[in-house]
Amino acid sequence: MRRDPVPERSERFLRGAARLSEMGGDIADIGEALADIAPDVAVYIGEFAFGDLYCRPGLSLRERQIATIAALTTLGDTGRQLRFHTGAALNTGVTPAEIVEVVVQMLAFAGSPRVFNAMLAVREALADRDLLPVSPGRPADGPDRS
Amino acid sequence: MRRDPVPERSERFLRGAARLSEMGGDIADIGEALADIAPDVAVYIGEFAFGDLYCRPGLSLRERQIATIAALTTLGDTGRQLRFHTGAALNTGVTPAEIVEVVVQMLAFAGSPRVFNAMLAVREALADRDLLPVSPGRPADGPDRS
Amino acid sequence: MRRDPVPERSERFLRGAARLSEMGGDIADIGEALADIAPDVAVYIGEFAFGDLYCRPGLSLRERQIATIAALTTLGDTGRQLRFHTGAALNTGVTPAEIVEVVVQMLAFAGSPRVFNAMLAVREALADRDLLPVSPGRPADGPDRS
Amino acid sequence: MRRDPVPERSERFLRGAARLSEMGGDIADIGEALADIAPDVAVYIGEFAFGDLYCRPGLSLRERQIATIAALTTLGDTGRQLRFHTGAALNTGVTPAEIVEVVVQMLAFAGSPRVFNAMLAVREALADRDLLPVSPGRPADGPDRS
Amino acid sequence: MRRDPVPERSERFLRGAARLSEMGGDIADIGEALADIAPDVAVYIGEFAFGDLYCRPGLSLRERQIATIAALTTLGDTGRQLRFHTGAALNTGVTPAEIVEVVVQMLAFAGSPRVFNAMLAVREALADRDLLPVSPGRPADGPDRS
Amino acid sequence: MRRDPVPERSERFLRGAARLSEMGGDIADIGEALADIAPDVAVYIGEFAFGDLYCRPGLSLRERQIATIAALTTLGDTGRQLRFHTGAALNTGVTPAEIVEVVVQMLAFAGSPRVFNAMLAVREALADRDLLPVSPGRPADGPDRS
After folding, report:
1. Which residue of D has its CA nearest to B113?
2. Residues of B128-141 as b/e, b for ≥16 C-beta within 10 angstroms?
3. Is the peptide bond before C57 cis (omega within 30 degrees of 0)?
4. What pLDDT score was predicted for residue D136?
5. Cα A118-A119-A121 angle, rounded to 5 deg
6. pLDDT 10s digits, A20-41
7. Are C81 and B113 in contact (CB under 8 A)?
């Protein structure tokens, strides 16, 4: 007998699933990945991360995704999460160039290994959506050309 | 003979110092803190972090500070940096409630110890500017009250 | 007008506050620390960390505290959290020597700087409760004495 | 001429190898993986991690594995280590559901990316032993269903 | 129209590219990997990491690579970077045994998971150059053989 | 009855204590700090970190301290350790300017918050020894002055 990958249906969960759907994700995918080991994790992510935190007022979804891309780049070992949140960022109005911009900024705070690895994960997510190449920033504000 | 805390004056450095000044900071403060050990670090921060990265187009300063607050919360051991960048966020149009909002969101990505410590650092910076208490988000979207 | 440091009263929150109380903590303390900046964080910690996670069956509170001491030692920059959770560990049946034992084991997984810093935080919490010195393990299984 | 993957045979090493064997591991496997580059690492792990630390009294092997799973989840970039220590946890009396429980608890301390990645590594180790699906915790204490 | 993977040519960039070349690397490889998403990252790495930092006097390239191997081992999630910098270390006069020695020393500071993962990455880079097996240190100073 | 802060006297421990002494440290200081909570930690540090790892051939003590300063800068939350190892670096032939140089290089790998915090810890240790100001690198290879 197959178990329901997302067994719980609190109001918070439903709110979170709707928010995630608005961001282009599907809570069922998270549930499916952990269905036979820890379905509760998908429920908690649905309830807490998306139903509680991502449903708070005070920041737009676009701004929340900017914060998330920065955090995941800094944390490291987050290729899977960056691929997902790149998609969510695109769905909430962040452009490919802006996602790249957030990761580039992390050169100052997290160092080049974290930035390089994050960029490769973002690149994969953009390639899947046929969004490469990303147009670079305007030259006048680009790297040093003294 | 006292050494100049900020000995270098490249175009990139001057551009970075101006950008930092616009964010309410003063490159001389960074230079002063490390003047007798590593003045070059202030120069590199002025040139690279503020002159190169923070002068890039493609994200507003407000958005860059949202990314920075998220990254510093996640990194940990960054109380000093969070106090500075809270001020810089305020000076680039991020409200106290929005700064708090970014830190709260990190409960999903970095866990509660990082969030608690970051919040105490942000709190200190806001207290210094007489900006407490911070008005909370609207109840209808706040924590679970089922 | 002073704000209520713990404004929310969901069933999950009350369950978490009771669990925390059983562990010797007081959710009001967390609320108080962040009352003028982010009272919601105390609510989320009450609801999610203590009401959801710490109320799950499947592990004793004693075992949960063993896991928590290990995690905080590994994470770093967690002196404040280790002081609190040392008290909570004592209240759930972990002895001082067992807390020390968990931290010592982290020499293999997190390295000596993390272990040294964690031990100093645990030491402070034990000193506050007049629980020093901690009796060492039996010599026969202690360090190399070849 | 092939080199011995585990060249050293101190009393501490033999004690550690025996302890590791009791946990279902084989020091020769670690030695083999690094035999042509750093056989000493296997020796140090045998001597120090397993011969010194894991042979200390004061915590059961079961409790030590609870601490280890928590630490590895928090540390990140530890898929290989989590796969090994999941097996060792099973061999020292931790059930699959209890291993999962430790990882789930880390949602509070290390955030969801670390938990998700750790769960996938644990899942692989359980799948290799034909131990999926893992029975969930009792509903009455599960996620919010208000 | 294909974009130039390394569009900028400042003096600092050229100096960095030359330094990198001296270390056995090629800035074009970094540029190529990110050419369609963030060519500026290769430019910044060329200018700042290699043109500014690696061109500073005061430490030999050999010593800089010792520092870098230590840092990457400690940081974690740096397999790609360790493979590259193992080659650069070899090209600046660090022997395979010395690279291994730096990683082994990290057992004290970063714990065995970081060391094990780093060693596997170093091993790959040495295998690609047909430099295995690495001769171990002299027995008299090796692991405990009391 | 007061306990001996360093109760164990294996050959490895004595070798490590001698090595530490050569580096200007005193194992009794570590033992004293943890005497009433975990004297074994000082023993393990004496035996394993200094008796095993730091007594290995293949790298000079000077080079080992370069690696250690890099690792501690990258790890974060290591002010106490950096103060100690700055002294040890000085005692093994690393100059103040070289210690600074290692920390500066970490701007590329660990980001500016880690570098800034590490530099402040190194600065304290140098100030205690009346070694400030540190002479900067030669201008010709310093920051950008185009």
Report:
1. D109
2. eeebeebebbeeee
3. no
4. 66
5. 65
6. 999 999 999 989 999 999 999 9
7. yes
Buried b (16+ CB within 10 A) or exposed e, E85-115: bbbbbbbbebebbbbbbbbbbbbbbbbbbbb
Cα F14 to Cα D68: distance, rounded to the nearest angstrom: 30
A34 φ/ψ angles, rounded to the nearest 5 degrees: -115, 15
- In angstroms, the CA D21 to CA A22 distance is 51
B110/D112 touch (CB, cutoff 8 Å), yes or no: no
CB contact under 8 A, A109 and F110: no
Q: Whole-model pTM above 0.90?
A: yes
Contact between A111 and F113 using a beta-carbon 8 Å cutoff: no
CB C122 within 8 A of CB C99: yes
The 8-class DSSP code of residue C99 comes to H
- Which residues of chain E make contact with A107, given a CB cutoff of 8 A? 41, 44, 48
Beta carbons of A108 and F111 less than 8 Å apart:
yes
Q: Residue C5: phi, psi to the nearest 5? A: -65, -20
Using one digit for the tens of pLDDT, what is the confidence trace for D4-30? 444 457 999 999 999 999 999 999 998
Q: Interior CA angle at B66 toward B61 and B68, to 5°?
A: 90
Which of E107, E113, E120 lies nearest to residue D78, judging by beta carbons? E113
CB F34 within 8 A of CB C119: yes
Q: Is F45 on the interface with C (CB under 8 A)?
A: yes
Instruction: Please give the span between the terminal C-alpha atoms of chain C, in angstroms, as a whole number.
Output: 68
Kindly state whether E44 is in contact with chain F, defined as any CB-CB distance less than 8 angstroms.
no
**Which chain C residues are closer than 8 Å to A48 by Cβ?**
44, 48, 52
- Preceding amide of A113 cis, omega within 30: no
Nearest to F36 by CA among C136, A69, A25, D118: C136
Assembly ipTM: 0.91
Q: Which residue of C has its CA nearest to A43?
A: C52
If we measure between CA atoms, which residue out of F16, C141, C70, F110 comes closest to residue D85? C70
